[in-house]
Amino acid sequence: MRLFEAAGGGTPLLLLLVSLVSFGTCRVMAQKSYIVHMDTSYMPKHMATHDQWYRSVVKSAKLVGTQATYDEKQLNGAFLYTYHRVISGFSAVLGENELEAVKNVPGFLSAYMDRAVSKVTTHTTDFLGMSLGSGLWPASDYGKDVIIGVIDTGVWPESASFRDDGMAEIPQRWKGKCEGGEGFGATLCNRKLIGVSYFNKGAKAALDPNTTISIPNSGRDTEGHGTHTSSTAAGNYVEEASFFGYAAGAARGVAPRARLAIYKVLWDVSTASDVLAGIEQAVADGVDVISISLAPPYNVSLYEDPIAIGSFGAMAKGILVSTPGGNSGPKGRGSLENGIPWALTSAAGSIDRWFAGTVSLASGEEITGWTTYPLAKPISGQLPLVYNKTMSHCNSTHLFSNLNASSIVVCESENFHSLWKQSGFLSYSKFVKAAIFISDNPDLHEFVDFPYPGIVISREQSYGIIKYCRSSNGVRRPHASIQLNQKTLLGTKGNPVVASYSSRGPAPSCPLVLKPDLMAPGTLVLAAWPPAIRPTYILRPNNVTVPLQSSHGFNIDYGTSMSCAHSSGIAALLKGAHPEWSPAAIRSAMITTANPKDNTDTPIKDPTDSRGIASPLSMGAGQVDPNRALDPGLVYDATPQDYVDLLCSMHFYSTQIQTITTSSKYNCSTRSSDLNYPSFILLYHQYHNQNVTRTFYRTVTYVGDGPETYTLDASQLPQSFHTTFNPVKLSFKKKYDKENYTFTLTYKGSQTGEVDFGSFTFVGDNGKHSVRSPVVVAPMINTW
């Protein structure tokens, strides 16, 4: 009996597979999970579904590769997922010879091993200028009925951020479900949290047989990451939120009236196959925006990147996919992890909030420093203040052995990790009651864990303390007190700055498109947190680590995952205000209206850059401005074919392109490296010291009302750029009119690998619209 035949008739698949492997040399190979892409036009006509076809392929491969019999139970254990919305194919556990058998099946496109993936607000909306009375919030009705799909670690549904107070009935277009599981009842969803699903087949298949790790069947968040990101994007209003008293206030997500659909794909072991299954389900359920705060497997091309592949299918169906730039900064250029041309990529920046403690010297001087020590702990009275150059290393318990009274010591810290180590040594001394840490490293203001009573001050602030300590004599010893009363300061100047951990462009997977796109708040973001997970730690005597449980169900976290969640919420608001906009139009509006200046109206800083000023490789176009994005004037739109033209220019094989697009209808007849993108990047060979020239072609679509003419302002381009624009004026009569322009840039390459940048703006004559595009020139990097 034939198992099935190839499309259009031909050799039965079983006989074909048998002929491919010599039984005399057949060996049982180690079983691994693979993601397999298939061309569905080859599906045999008598097969009812793709799932049936794929299962038959796997079963036939198993019969050839491993054993003479293979029952349905074994097949169910080896077959993981069928994909048919964002990719065409399946994932399964296969041996090496079984994989070779699958590769010879008609319709096979590509296969790669299932790889690991990784995870990468009371005030942030105020910092972004969002207002109850005007702008994007009221224009979008606060994201009413827009559905955000969050691909992450799950959710803690009992959090107050997911209450459905004030929410209308669930939109009828919603096709998803609330999937019950271990410790998670299907009744826990509501009109805010409208769906929860989990995907763990890949994770379970990847487990070592001898491991003690357990992968539950549940959408419940056991890590906190997914609860934090989803509530940041679309959490409801919650009064009296705080982190141990810091950042106290009313918490709310960026799109507080949007709906949330949660897809748990991250576990103790996380795999690409589960991520693809989550994206696939989100598209099927009818979400409008996908927020995926994950980093793809390292060093993979776009055609093997599950986030890139899944997001292309989502984009083609009109769904914007929002991703983080990654937390691999500041390793220099080329550390950016999600360089997907058809997705939105966010860098992380700071906000204007400062958590403060105070040192009061007996001389009368007061110094305000940084702390997030979670326990309110006033150091009662004036204690001896101890400083000397040797002791300030604070790297040995021996340094404090001569103390014979309760004291405050002064330590010099290089970074966050050294502060933790120093805190451990301090905890062994019964006489050290608190510490003053001296450091100019911005890392110390980005991480929330502060394990020991104390504050961080700058080196400049330390001069007064050191002078005071040295000027005291044996009769009058220096004394001080420290107040750790969980004080929060707002409106601090010089923000945002680019976070040191935020990955820098260009993206090795696609350096032809400038990434990141923009910057959003990512540092010290307050959002919901599972109460069962203790968010921070303190050190008790003898370096004993004690986890603390938050009494408010909130935590402060950092990372481009948090900036991604902010951008996802803003994209949802824009989708609510402009439901007709494509994903590219929404992204364009956010890029061209982003602000390159901080709250002192000076260029945004990058503390890790020798010039101090942030380049587009670290912040994209600048800090996202939600209210200006509502009315951008012009947008740079793009279709799926435009992205295919880009892939063709990258010399991908047709099978690799079809792996990404799932379709053979696209072709390379119009290949072009010049994607219709709002930003520009020119790469040069570092050591050639020659002029490099490139002409960019762009089409802009008018989304304003009434006639308007835009005039070029190129005053913000550096003198090292030799440029020509044609034309310099763009005139539009009505909404959705299109105009083309060219931009030619010539730059002489630098032997030292210099990065140069600027921007140009098309300014509308109605006084409302300024459409700004960042431009950067940088040395070429190694690509993936």
Can you describe this structure?
With 784 residues, the protein is of the alpha/beta class. 21% of the residues lie in helices and 26% in strands. The strands form 9 sheets. Strands 7-10-6-11-13-14-22 form a 7-stranded parallel sheet, with helices on both faces. Strands 16-15-21-17-18-19-20 form a 7-stranded mixed sheet.
Question: What is the topological layout?
Answer:
Elements: H1 13-20, E1 32-38, H2 50-65, H3 72-78, E2 79-83, E3 89-94, H4 96-103, E4 108-113, E5 118-119, H5 124-127, H6 136-140, E6 147-152, E7 193-198, H7 201-206, H8 225-234, E8 238-243, E9 246-251, E10 259-264, H9 272-285, E11 289-292, E12 294-295, H10 306-316, E13 320-324, E14 344-349, E15 353-361, E16 366-370, E17 383-386, E18 407-412, H11 416-427, E19 432-438, E20 454-457, H12 459-471, E21 479-490, E22 518-521, E23 525-528, E24 536-540, E25 544-548, E26 554-557, H13 560-577, H14 583-592, H15 616-619, H16 626-629, E27 634-635, H17 640-649, H18 654-661, E28 680-684, E29 691-702, E30 708-713, E31 722-726, E32 729-732, E33 738-748, E34 756-764, E35 770-779
